[in-house]
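User: Can you predict the 3D structure for this chain?
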Amino acid sequence: MKFKINIKGKEYEVGILEFKEGTKIKVGDKEFFFKEKEIKKEVSIPSVFFKKRDFSKKEIRSPIAGIISEIFIREGEFVKKGKKLLCLSAMKMENEIVSEFEGKIKKILIKKDQKVKEWDTLILLE
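Assistant: Here is the predicted structure, written as structure tokens:
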């Protein structure tokens, strides 16, 4: 995901690289790690960024745009962290998407052969 931010009056195009304990952003060739609170204080960033991910929800999102080629789980199934959930075809490669959480599959929001965009919610867990 890329967007523009303003740091101390200078505009930069940034790409979000990961969303784990905090956020790593890339500005030019340099990478910076911020906790969510630090980003809100240090960087003027569109509010849509903070609405895209609610860390209290267990949801699996697409890391890239592509086509769902396989789904390995069913609604109601219990999965452990690291379990293979689906395959996403993008740029002539198969990308395995694994669970970031342990829990019961609440809702599968995608179907085989469906096109998805980067950051689309694919699966909800309880």
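Residues 36-42 form the longest helix (7 residues). The two ends are 26 Å apart (CA to CA).
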